[in-house]
Design goal:
The structure holds two protein chains of two kinds.
Chain A (H helix, E strand, L loop, with lengths): L5 H17 L6 H22 L11 H15 L8 H19 L4 H19 L8 H20 L4 H13 L7 H9 L4 H20 L5 H24 L3 H23 L4 H28 L11 H4 L1 H14 L6 H12 L5 H26 L14 H19 L26
Chain B lengths: L1 H18 L6 H7 L1 H21 L2 E4 L14 E4 L1 H24 L6 H19 L4 H19 L5 H32 L4 H10 L3 E5 L2 E4 H16 L8 H4 L5 H9 L4 H8 L1 H4 L3 H23 L4 H21 L3 H31 L17 H25 L8 H22 L7 H29 L3 H10 L4 H26 L8 H15 L4 H27 L1
Antiparallel strand pairs in B: 1-2, 3-4
Helix pairs in contact in B: 1-2, 1-3, 1-5, 3-4, 4-5, 4-11, 4-16, 5-6, 6-7, 7-9, 9-12, 9-14, 11-16, 12-15, 12-16, 14-15, 15-16, 16-19, 17-18, 17-19, 18-21
The chains are: A mainly alpha, B mainly alpha.
């Protein structure tokens, strides 16, 4: 029988072993991609096998399952090209660090987060471009996050709790510490943005579970205010974007801010929070993979305004993109809706204004995401464009995301957490009846 | 229990038959799928019989006592209201689907379209038989998206804009609906219909919006839910999506106008015990409904496109239906929506053929250029005026004496009677303009028909009310809750009387060549009003302007923030 303390090491070790095992295939992109996908799947299997034997965190076990899944679909959705080789291996490396951050106890968990943020900052520095000066802000934000994560290990309370909260604000983006999120999603190469949008917020949520209950009231109130600003700001900025990645980055920022608001109101994190963060991340990840499909066909710097009529030329792609969009804008029966409803019904409302802003942010998603989908899929078919529907790997990647989002919308949360963990606080009325 | 589940499942099976199968067999499969839809209709009829004789049927796939239930609490609660709606929806679906297989024959997207029709029917059935508010909302939202899908056409810019408008406007209403659900849950701790009604009645909650401004919990919840209902039922000012979606194939409109648009009326009826707790919400519903009815009907008169005319007619009728709800006559609203649904489905199914014919034949529709006969014969005028003046008396006698409706205690009923009066008068005024009406046979036939319709309608409504709400005290309590302030009640009655009297006076004076001293501004206003009503009060332009302004502001903010951030 394996010792329970070894399991986090094992979970983190498998993807790292995958990196080493994939090294011999570096010259052959096709085989390297296959190997990376296989190791991500093995990692998912290991989570399935061992997750039941580790202490269930406050947010449940869902994040542990979602990380290898996101890695799998991110790698699978990329074309087998030599330019993506490094990103696949880095995806496995980050997966290992992410699993360590989620499954280990403190301080290993925080050190893993710190290392993860340092690596992302270094990577962003390597991909820095003078055309995108904002990435300095992103690199700075991740640097700050890494510092805060390390500080929260070394310092005593209350400094450690504030430092931990700051690290959370960088990981799970909260205005004004959101530049890292924007930069990572727009500047990182290959499969990394679609993986990072799941990994970093999940790591942030895990840290938030321990940080939120102990922060002073004034800090929680400030967080609540920033969250509301972030939800509106993200939605407004997403409305103004024409670049898809930036639109998705701002859109996800808006939804993550909603989670912050609920977390600040209830001063806790529940498996429902994980459901919202996980599904928002996964839906955004799916949309990024879908955008990658367009980039693969029409070039990296393709202008979305120049693309239209994909619905008639690429029907499979159109159906899957529409479903992903539905999920991302928080419509049933997908997981984002389930997570949002779960939080809406189980968390107390500190203010009606907050509720109003939250609902507006939810509503705005219908506007900017639907606009994006309409622009890409519908309109006149362009004779100068060659329409080629999804390849098998792309189809598999997008289909997995859609099915998982659907399953998360329908499955009971108790699948990933004990029943008692579902309620952070009871609603104002009598005891709940049917809710998750 | 199995029967209740069978109805939606058969519709889902029909969608699968249309979608799944080898290439080349599309038309055969499309025809084959009509059978499960027909079977679903029979199932709905059987369910109606079952719940009429044996009481409501409840099926739940979640544990009420556990927090570990599904995110989507799938459960069915079929009472008489649900069963009636199921029968209506499946009945109309059979006709629409059968018609569509021929109408869309050889269309490139026929398969997708037919599958969507089946899926929409499935969603509608699940919605009307939901066991809780959460499931209802869930299918409500799916319906918003399906409406978008059905209303849009890939390559047509106008259609895409209309579909986008449909989706965004419905989402605005859905958001209010969601807020209502969240508030209801936080106030009463449940979303199960019966428990919710019980707790709302037992635990009156007062919310303080801001110092000095209090509102009862039931009012806050029902107002939010009412905004949700306004969206689907195209109430002013969220009605804009309906004319915008008129590019869709006519069978879609038959389904939309016979089924989907009734969702608002259904929602209010489903939550009648909750709405009955708030006089404020009922008054708001009355106001919005009246406004929508008047504006919808006025705009309908000024349209020059058959689909738009029918679309605005629907808006007017939906306004009328919501107004009925606002007066506490919930069962009457359901009766109205059934009658209107059947009528409008028939008209829309025929409308496609008329459009096709008009495109092929330049002289169609034929216009009768004969000038109207000036003046009225004595017999015509006598018949019309007597009918108009005596019908209300007869109605009052019948309702008060035979049907035993306590008119003095029920504002709503009296207002309805006056609406019936004013509507009948308007119909008679229109009919008397026809030359043929001078014949005493025609006059008598007209009179008898009108009386027949009015009394059958009254008896049918009364019976239907007893069927849907067997407890007379419950019905009386709804009417009581909807009682208007005395001055408003008097104003409505006096206005209705003055309008009818003025109409007949005008007709008489015109017929006898008397000069009407009409101020010049009234004459000019009639012309001036025509243009805005023809242009639908420029509401589409206003919507576009609002959208553009928001986007301009958003872009300006984005530009400024980007500068700061760099």
């Amino acid at each position: 029988m394996m010792d329970g303390t070894l399991i986090p090491w094992l979970l983190a070790g498998i993807p790292l072993l995958g990196v080493l095992a994939s090294l011999p295939f570096r010259s052959d992109p096709e085989r390297l991609k296959g190997s990376s996908v296989a190791w991500a799947v093995i990692s998912l299997g290991s989570v399935g096998g061992f997750a039941g034997r580790i202490d269930v965190p406050l947010e449940g076990l869902l994040p542990l399952y979602l990380l290898p899944l996101a890695a799998t679909i991110s790698i699978l959705g990329q074309p087998a090209h030599k330019h993506h080789r490094r990103s696949w291996m880095l995806t496995l490396l980050f997966l290992g660090l992410g699993l360590s951050a989620l499954s280990s106890e403190r301080p290993i968990s925080l050190l893993s987060v710190s290392l993860l943020l340092v690596l992302v900052a270094v990577l962003l520095y390597r991909h820095h471009s003078a055309l995108w000066p904002r990435s300095w802000w992103g690199i700075g934000a991740y640097g700050l996050g890494a510092l805060c994560a390390a500080l929260s290990v070394a310092a005593d309370a209350p400094l450690s709790s504030v430092a931990s909260l700051l690290a959370c604000a960088v990981l799970l983006p909260l205005v004004p510490f959101h530049d890292g999120h924007l930069t990572a999603l727009t500047r990182l190469p290959g499969s990394l943005p679609s993986f990072m949008v799941v990994l970093l917020p999940m790591a942030g949520l895990h840290q938030l579970a321990s940080a939120m209950p102990i922060v002073p009231d004034i800090v929680a109130w400030t967080v609540s205010l920033f969250a509301l600003v972030g939800a509106s700001y993200g939605a407004l900025k997403a409305l103004a974007q024409s670049r898809i990645r930036l639109l998705l980055a701002y859109g996800s920022l808006s939804f993550f801010s909603i989670l912050w608001w609920f977390a600040a109101a209830s001063r806790t994190v529940t498996p429902r929070s994980a459901l919202l963060v996980g599904t928002v991340g996964l839906a955004t990840s799916g949309l990024m993979v879908a955008w990658q499909v367009v980039r693969t066909r029409y070039g990296d710097d393709v202008d979305p305004q120049a693309i239209s009529g994909l619905a008639s030329g690429m029907p499979q792609y159109a159906v899957l993109l529409s479903l992903l969009a539905l999920a991302a804008m928080g419509l049933p029966p997908f997981g984002v809706f389930a997570g949002f409803m779960g939080l809406l019904l189980s968390s107390p409302f500190p203010s009606l204004t907050g509720l109003f802003v939250t609902l507006l942010a939810w509503l705005a998603a219908s506007w900017y995401i639907m606009q994006m989908v309409q622009r890409l899929l519908f309109g006149v078919r362009r004779p100068e464009l060659r329409y080629a529907d999804l390849l098998r790997a792309e189809l598999a990647s997008l289909l997995i995301v859609v099915l998982v989002l659907l399953a998360l919308g329908l499955a009971p949360t108790t699948l990933f957490a004990p029943e008692g963990a579902l309620f952070g606080t009871a609603p104002m009325g009598e005891s709940p009846t049917w809710t998750r | 229990m199995t029967l209740v589940l069978l109805v939606p499942l058969l519709l889902l099976a029909a969608a699968c038959i249309v979608v799944i199968g080898p290439g080349g067999s599309e038309h055969t499969r499309a025809k084959l799928a009509a059978y499960p839809i027909g079977a679903a209709f029979l199932g709905a009829v059987a369910t109606l019989y079952l719940v009429t004789t044996g009481g409501p049927v409840s099926v739940r796939f979640y544990d009420l006592s556990s927090v570990a239930s599904f995110a989507i609490p799938i459960g069915f609660y079929v009472d008489r209201l649900s069963a009636v709606m199921m029968t209506l929806i499946t009945g109309v679906s059979v006709i629409i689907y059968s018609y569509s297989t021929g109408y869309m024959y050889q269309d490139r997207h026929a398969r997708r379209y037919l599958a969507m029709i089946c899926l929409t029917d499935f969603v509608l059935i699940c919605m009307v038989s939901s066991a809780n508010l959460m499931m209802l909302f869930l299918f409500w939202q799916v319906l918003s998206y399906l409406l978008y899908v059905l209303a849009h056409n890939h390559a047509h810019a106008g259609t895409l804009a209309g579909a986008f408008k449909t989706f965004t406007l419905l989402r605005v209403a859905d958001t209010a609906f969601l807020a209502g659900i969240a508030l209801a849950y936080h106030l009463y701790g449940t979303l199960e219909f019966q428990e919710l009604f019980q707790r709302a009645a037992d635990m009156p909650v007062v919310l303080s919006l801001w110092p000095g401004m209090d509102m009862s919990g039931a009012t806050a919840v029902t107002l939010l839910l009412f905004v949700g209902a306004m969206g689907k039922s195209a109430q002013f000012p969220i009605h804009l999506w309906l004319p915008g979606s008129l590019f869709a194939p006519t069978p879609v409109h038959a389904l939309l106008h016979a089924g989907i648009i009734n969702a608002g009326g259904f929602l209010i009826n489903r939550l009648a015990p909750l709405f009955g707790l708030s006089s404020t919400t009922l008054h708001v519903a009355f106001l919005i409904g009246t406004l929508t009815a008047v504006l919808g009907a006025s705009m309908m008169l000024a349209q020059n496109d058959i689909k738009k005319t029918l679309g605005f007619s629907t808006i007017g009728q939906m306004g009328y239906m919501i107004m009925e709800c606002g007066l506490g006559a919930f069962a009457l609203a359901v009766f109205h929506l059934i009658a209107h649904g059947l009528f409008k489905a028939t008209v829309f199914l025929n409308c496609g053929n008329v459009i096709h014919k008009a495109r092929q034949e330049p002289h169609f529709p034929y216009v009768d250029h004969h000038a109207e006969e000036p003046g009225l014969s004595g017999l015509t005028w006598f018949t019309g005026s007597v009918t108009t003046l005596f019908i209300p008396l007869l109605i009052l006698l019948v309702t008060h004496g035979v049907l035993r409706i306590p008119l003095l205690e029920s504002h709503g009923t009296v207002i309805f009677l006056f609406f019936i009066w004013i509507t009948s008068s308007q119909a008679i005024l229109t009919l008397t303009r026809l030359r043929q009406v001078a014949s005493w046979k025609v006059s008598a036939a007209m009179l008898m028909t009108l009386l027949f319709i009015v009394f059958v309608y009254l008896f049918a409504v009364e019976s239907f009310t007893e069927f849907l709400y067997p407890n007379p005290e419950e019905v009386a309590s709804y009417f009581k809750a909807a009682d208007l302030p005395a001055w408003l009640f008097d104003l409505i009655i006096v206005t209705a009387t003055v309008l009818t009297g003025a109409g007949w006076s005008y007709l008489y004076m015109s017929a006898h060549g008397m000069t009407l001293r009409m101020p010049a501004w009234i004459d000019s206003m009639r012309i001036r009003l025509y243009l805005p009503f023809m242009n639908r009060l420029y509401a589409d332009e206003l919507y576009a302007l609002t959208g553009q302004t928001i986007m301009r502001l958003v872009h300006q903010l984005d530009k400024r923030e980007r500068g700061w951030s760099r």
